[in-house]
Amino acid sequence: GAYTAYLTHAGADWDWELAGVTLLAIIVGGACLASVEPDDSQAVLGKAMRGVVLIGALAVCAFALVSLVGNQALVAGREALGHGNLVSAERQAKLSARRLPWSPDPWVTIGDAQLASGDTPAAQRSYKRAIAKDPRNWLLWRGLAQATVGAERRHAIAKVILLNPLNTEFATNSK
């Protein structure tokens, strides 16, 4: 009942992105599969197949747990950045980048902390790493535009305008 409702809702909405909730749902699903006792009137998965499914569920749980830790570090980094603790922000964001290697978000936080601390070359490298992971995200290009000058800044601004034509931040000043 409740498990089916969760699966149905997660299929249509963003619930699956909540790592803690999804982790619990996967554990419950795996436990349900492992505890089924076959009788003659039901066609159920054999023991070997249940083992394979359980191992798969455990692998997904491990992935969700690593993602949860990475997201917690990212939130901690953003909070530290908001409070002006640039060293902690960068440290937490780097931890997040190791746990979430596919995500550009940690690199944005790293770049923001580096830019705020005056390390413009490092900030440029961080924003470029973020862009390499998601080149169609205009916010990443905006970060790079804020950290660069000259032709590189003009190129980044052009990408911001191309990807988000409604943005007016750079409409009159592209230098």
Any overview of this molecule?
The chain is mainly α. It has one domain: Tetratricopeptide repeat domain (Serine Threonine Protein Phosphatase 5, Tetratricopeptide repeat), CATH 1.25.40.10. The protein contains eight helices and no strands. The radius of gyration is 22 Å and the shape is elongated. The mean pLDDT is 86.
Annotate the secondary structure layout.
Layout: H1 2-12, H2 19-35, H3 47-82, H4 86-99, H5 105-116, H6 120-133, H7 138-147, H8 150-163
Helix pairs in contact: 2-3, 3-4, 3-5, 4-5, 5-6, 6-7, 7-8
Give a quick summary of the entry:
This protein is mainly alpha-helical. It is built from 8 helices and no strands. The radius of gyration is 22 Å and the shape is elongated.
Features:
about 180 residues, mainly alpha, elongated, Serine Threonine Protein Phosphatase 5, Tetratricopeptide repeat, about 0% strand
Give me the secondary-structure category.
mainly alpha
Q: What kind of oligomer do you see?
A: single chain
Give a short account of the largest sheet.
none
Assign the CATH architecture: Alpha Horseshoe
What gross morphology would you assign?
elongated
How many structural domains are formed by the residues? Answer: 1
**CATH 4th-level superfamily:** Tetratricopeptide repeat domain
Percent of residues in β-strands: under 5%
Radius of gyration: 22 Å
CATH topology: Serine Threonine Protein Phosphatase 5, Tetratricopeptide repeat
Q: In CATH, what is the class? A: Mainly Alpha
Helix content: over 70%
